[in-house]
């Protein structure tokens, strides 16, 4: 009896020691992008472009099953400042933490805007790919408009640290006035035709056109505590051709997130091309909401007001739904940030 008790005690002690030494999973470092919510004028064509032509996969089965309208809940009415019905599909980019929540609302009377890549507030979804020619073939045969000069991928040179990387890039319209950019980087270490086939998409990031890079950087720093690594203007002809522009300049800046797993966000500023700011309401076509998890939403709301930003919730304050608090903020470029804090 004594031997049994002693053995049991040793087992419990060993288990307790192992449990104490287990490392809990690290919590994500906030702020961090969770989803992007582009508001579409035509969700059926959206499903066609992103799922059938581009190859993004649904997180909830057949995306066509999500093309039915359902009523906006009261907290959604407050957050989006619109009544009526909504519908959405959820698609995930392979090899990325980014989820695309593609939205549509029937309560708005606004129409799709005439968008251009250089317009402040324009959004582009940038996908790395292992086979740009195959994806380009599928997308163009599907009827999508190509913005890139010449209608084919353009060879460009990108500066990465101290190295120069040759890439191919092409820019499309997604049938709804959002811009989709495919980029394939040359990698001499990889040999074509070896190993099993993999996903065509290798990465995903958000790109937003801004009116003024310095003012945008200050807003994101003052409100969310995020630093922006400012780039310099380039007049490289091939780079501009990939955007469908000539005789202009483009400047790319990078938002610095603490968590390396956070989906990337880049800002683009153009000059030398006619620009028209896009200012849709949050439920209007061509609006984009970037969902960002944060802490201290009350404090952030005060910072937004101090920075001259706009609170877009119909109530003028935070929307509460269970343990999740929501705040929609319009940044200086007309882009909506859908901030959430889980209590």
Describe it.
This protein has 343 residues and is of the alpha+beta class. The protein has a single domain (32-342), classed as Roll (2,3-Dihydroxybiphenyl 1,2-Dioxygenase, domain 1). It has helices at residues 2-21, 43-53, 74-80, 132-141, 213-224, 237-243, 297-306; strands at 32-38, 57-58, 70-71, 85-92, 99-105, 123-129, 154-160, 163-173, 179-185, 201-209, 227-229, 233-234, 249-256, 265-271, 288-293, 310-311, 319-321, 324-330, 336-342. The strands form two sheets. Strands 1, 2, 3, 4, 5, 15, 16, 17, 18 and 19 form a ten-stranded mixed sheet that branches. Strands 6, 7, 8, 9, 10, 11, 12, 13 and 14 form a nine-stranded mixed sheet that branches. Helix 5 (213-224) packs antiparallel against helix 7 (297-306). The N and C termini lie far apart (50 Å).
Pick out the low-confidence regions: 1-20
Number of strands: 19
Q: What order do the helices and strands follow?
A: HEHEEHEEEHEEEEHEEHEEEHEEEE
- Structural class by sheet pairing and helices: alpha+beta
How much of the sequence is in beta strands?
A: 25-35%
Number of helices: 7
Summarize, please:
With 343 residues, this protein is α+β, with helices and mostly antiparallel strands.
């Amino acid at each position: 009896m004594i031997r049994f008790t002693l053995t049991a005690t040793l087992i419990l002690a060993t288990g307790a020691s192992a449990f104490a030494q287990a490392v809990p999973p690290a919590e994500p470092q906030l702020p961090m992008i969770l989803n992007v919510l582009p508001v579409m004028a035509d969700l059926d064509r959206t499903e066609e472009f992103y799922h059938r032509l581009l190859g993004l996969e649904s997180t909830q089965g057949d995306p066509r099953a999500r093309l039915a309208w359902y009523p906006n809940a009261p907290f959604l009415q407050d957050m989006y400042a619109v009544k009526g019905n909504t519908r959405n599909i959820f698609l995930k980019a392979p090899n990325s933490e980014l989820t695309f929540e593609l939205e549509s609302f029937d309560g708005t009377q606004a129409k799709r805007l005439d968008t251009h890549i250089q317009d402040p507030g324009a959004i582009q979804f940038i996908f790395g790919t292992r086979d740009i020619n195959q994806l380009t073939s599928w997308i163009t045969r599907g009827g999508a408009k190509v913005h890139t000069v010449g209608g084919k991928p353009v060879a460009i040179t990108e500066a990465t640290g101290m190295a120069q990387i040759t890439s191919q890039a092409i820019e499309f319209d997604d049938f709804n006035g959002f811009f989709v950019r495919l980029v394939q980087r040359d990698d001499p270490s990889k040999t074509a035709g070896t190993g099993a086939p993999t996903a065509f998409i290798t990465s995903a990031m958000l790109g937003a056109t801004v009116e003024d890079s310095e003012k945008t950087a200050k807003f994101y720093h003052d409100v969310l505590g995020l630093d922006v690594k400012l780039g310099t203007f380039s007049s490289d002809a091939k780079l501009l051709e990939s955007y469908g522009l000539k005789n202009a300049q483009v400047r790319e800046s990078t938002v610095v997130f603490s968590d390396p797993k956070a989906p990337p966000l880049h800002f683009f500023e153009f000059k030398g091309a006619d620009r028209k700011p896009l200012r849709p309401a949050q439920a209007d076509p061509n609006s984009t909401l970037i969902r960002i998890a944060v802490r201290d939403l009350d404090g952030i709301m005060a910072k937004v007001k101090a920075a001259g930003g706009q609170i877009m919730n119909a109530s003028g304050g935070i929307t509460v739904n269970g343990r999740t608090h929501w705040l929609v903020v319009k940044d200086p470029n007309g882009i909506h940030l859908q901030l959430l804090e889980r209590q």
